[in-house]
Recover the amino acids of this structure.
């Protein structure tokens, strides 16, 4: 994937780095039950030598994108994930189905992907494939 | 040239496209040569839309207009000057003509706007997908070149795009499939990405969204979606054994798994309509020979002609016989003479 061709250094690399940082910070937020200040997030990141402002910028970006929510706590901001990781995974896999236009059909397809008759055809094919494949 | 003959011809093309689509939807040969069949679907869709819009507008423009655009412009200018219903002429024919014209223009607008809206929806959905994948997906040595999402149900799809096309598989799919099967699935998805199958399906998705009540549109979309999957299957089979791909599909189907394609994505198992998965597996395991070169060439020619006929009727000014052509200028001149007193009248 990424290793197939050498990436031009510079912009792409920094974008990737920012992306990695967003991800790492979301992992921190998802990993704790409570909301965290920028300093607390920094402390939990494996990469410790990050500037305070860098972490703050990334948290700000995450809040702008809607992945994190922030609230005032005295003079500091506290951040927490807008939704659980599982909720986002589910959204990732399902959004589309809801957007295809006929939601009911999509959901029905989701619950029962193939009909009984079709399933037996597929099972037959599978038996055949595995039968002559020797394993 | 505009006139009843052209309108009738266009109406015939529109009806022919609908009939042709119905026939193509139930034909068996398309799965032998999916590419040729997809081309025919595209031609029928384009010709049908053009002809339906064209026929309505042709009926709607006043007789003797030299071109469709000119006729529409003339109706617009008479409407602007408030003389849509000339005094002393029967109102009903003019009214019916106007209704037809408005319907034609409305249909044209709807077709264009639904295509734009569908594209925008797909682009938005893909952007959201990318943002989520950036936070959630990870690589896995089991699926080189793919993004893996921790989701228990088996799913595999691709996210097309100019800059960073992506293949996404769920952990459920990694658990379900054997290595050779997974490789076949990845080859299938790569074919979707490489050949931009999403762009082929897009207009049909848009049509279906716009005309949800239309059986033809639903059938066309379903057929093209299945043919696209078969095309990607064929591409995957160039590099991967048939047993691996068929095995993967059969497993996807029988696992009772969620095989879903997020918006703007193509799933390895595609839209699971009744029998589609079984049809693909059967086709992979016991393939019918593709259509001969001559037959495919004939299909290509037919597709070209199907599109060219309505385009020619609409664009070429004088398709009518020479006799009618001689009437054209004189009638146009006559109406121009009619027009001049009207232009003076406001001042009079």
């Amino acid at each position: 994937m990424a290793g197939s061709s050498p990436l031009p250094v510079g912009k792409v690399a920094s974008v990737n780095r920012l992306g990695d940082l967003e991800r790492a910070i979301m992992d921190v937020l998802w990993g704790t039950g409570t909301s965290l200040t920028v300093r607390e997030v920094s402390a939990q990141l494996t990469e410790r030598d990050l500037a305070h402002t860098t972490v703050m910028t990334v948290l700000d970006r995450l809040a702008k994108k809607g992945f994190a929510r922030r609230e005032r706590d005295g003079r500091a901001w506290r951040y927490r994930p807008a939704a659980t990781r599982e909720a986002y995974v589910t959204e990732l896999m399902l959004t589309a189905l809801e957007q295809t236009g006929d939601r009911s059909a999509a959901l029905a397809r989701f619950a029962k992907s193939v009909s009984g008759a079709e399933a037996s055809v597929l099972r037959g094919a599978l038996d055949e494939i595995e039968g002559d494949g020797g394993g | 040239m505009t006139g009843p003959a052209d309108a009738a011809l266009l109406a015939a093309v529109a009806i022919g496209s609908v009939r042709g689509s119905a026939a193509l939807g139930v034909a068996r040969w398309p799965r032998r040569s999916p590419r040729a069949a997809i081309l025919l679907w595209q031609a029928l869709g384009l010709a049908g839309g053009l002809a339906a819009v064209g026929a309505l507008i042709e009926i709607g423009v006043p007789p003797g207009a030299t071109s469709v655009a000119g006729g529409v412009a003339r109706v617009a200018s008479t409407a602007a000057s408030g003389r849509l219903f000339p005094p002393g002429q029967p109102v009903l024919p003019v009214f019916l003509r106007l209704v037809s014209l408005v319907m034609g223009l409305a249909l044209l607008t709807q077709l264009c706007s639904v295509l734009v809206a569908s594209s925008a929806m797909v682009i938005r959905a893909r952007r959201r997908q990318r943002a989520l994948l950036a936070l959630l997906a990870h690589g896995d040595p089991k699926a080189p070149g793919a993004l893996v999402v921790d989701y228990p149900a088996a799913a595999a799809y691709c996210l097309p795009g100019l800059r960073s096309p992506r293949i996404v598989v769920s952990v459920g799919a990694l658990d379900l499939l054997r290595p050779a099967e997974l490789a076949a699935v990845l080859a299938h998805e790569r074919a979707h990405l490489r050949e931009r199958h999403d762009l082929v399906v897009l207009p049909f998705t848009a049509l279906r969204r716009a005309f949800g009540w239309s059986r033809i549109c639903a059938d066309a979309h379903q057929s093209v979606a299945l043919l696209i999957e078969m095309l990607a299957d064929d591409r995957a089979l160039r590099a991967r054994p048939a047993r691996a791909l068929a095995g993967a599909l059969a497993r996807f189907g029988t696992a009772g798994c969620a095989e879903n394609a997020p918006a703007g994505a193509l799933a390895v198992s595609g839209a699971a309509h009744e029998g589609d998965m079984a049809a693909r597996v059967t086709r992979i395991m016991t393939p019918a020979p593709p259509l001969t070169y001559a037959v495919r060439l004939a299909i290509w020619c037919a597709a070209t002609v199907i599109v060219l006929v309505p385009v020619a009727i609409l664009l070429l000014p004088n398709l009518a016989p020479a006799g009618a052509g001689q009437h054209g200028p004189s009638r146009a001149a006559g109406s121009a003479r009619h027009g001049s007193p009207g232009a003076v009248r406001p001042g009079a």
Remarks:
- The first strand of chain B starts at residue 147 and ends at 149.
- The two ends of chain B are 34 Å apart (CA to CA).
- Residues 1-84+294-348 of chain B form one domain.
- Chain B touches chain A through 54 residues (CB under 8 Å).
